[in-house]
Amino acid sequence: MSATSGLQVEELPDRVVATLARPEKRNAIDADLVAALHALCAELEARPRLLLLTGGAEGIFAAGADIAQLRDRDRLDALAAINAGIFARIRALPMPSVAAVDGPALGGGAELSYACDLRVCTERAVFGQPEVRLGIIAGAGATHRLPALIGEARAKELLYTGRRMDAAEALRVGLVNQVVADPAALLPTAHGLLDEMAKASPLALRLTKLAVDAPAAAHPALDLAAQAVLFEDEEKRERMTRFLDRRDRR
User: What are the Cα distances from residue 137, in Å, to 25, 69, 129, 150, 156?
Assistant: First the structure.
């Protein structure tokens, strides 16, 4: 396991586990952490693998952007898309990602979880966008990812009021995929989701993510092109042959 700039990275054969490691700052997202996440994305773009992203410290995912740094940023910093850029890069990773959320995921921390493909959380998880109360907007993805995840009306309520959403509500509205009662079960549950994905053809999984995340205008041409590539893939033939052999032996 390597650790740098508030991020611990563990590389496994089929996945990478990235743990936010700034417990003294409640895992607030600062410039060094953003740089470490960019370095991680570069590795996953060069050698695609599944990603598990977690807060590590018990009872906290990420309390948001580092307010001390955020207060001093100016309009040019805003236009540089410091947080928005890294969250978009995480969203665009070749292989799926899962966020394991324990405790608060607020502001930029919530937006970091939205950038992942799936989310699992504990019962003490809390999601919220308090930016308007600080005189800014949720400018790192929440204004478009949150409506896509939970619907426009609910997203607007959270974005306009800064209200926090607990785990039960997050599960009910589809923001998270699973909620676990015991925090000790959070990472095993997240790994379980990734284990199921790991059973798939890596190329089929990668092209499925590409198709799901593509704009509506790209379909059905993208689906047909992806399927054409997979129909010529030797792993497709091997997997279907194994399936037919098992069926015939029944």
Answer: 22, 16, 9, 18, 12
Neighbours of 207 (CB within 10 A): 20
User: Strand, helix or coil at 179?
Assistant: strand
Quickly count: other Cβ atoms within 10 Å of residue 149's Cβ.
Answer: 17
Token pair of 79, please? 């236009």
Query: What digits encode the pLDDT tens for the residues 81-103?
Result: 789 999 999 999 999 999 999 99
Q: Which of 10, 43, 58, 111 is catalytic?
A: 111
111 labelled catalytic: yes
| CB-based contacts of 48, cutoff 8 Å, min separation 6 | 93, 94, 95, 202, 206
Half-sphere exposure of residue 40, counting CA atoms within 13 Å on the CB side?
Answer: 36
Catalytic-role residue among 43, 131, 196, 234: 131
- For residues 64 and 30, what is the distance between their CA atoms, to the nearest angstrom? 9
**pTM value surpassing 0.85:** yes
Joined tokens for residue 247 = 């069926």
3-state secondary structure of 228: helix
> In 3-state terms, what secondary structure has residue 166?
strand
User: Tens of pLDDT along 112-146?
Assistant: 999 999 999 999 999 999 999 999 999 999 999 99
In three-state secondary structure terms, 2 is: strand
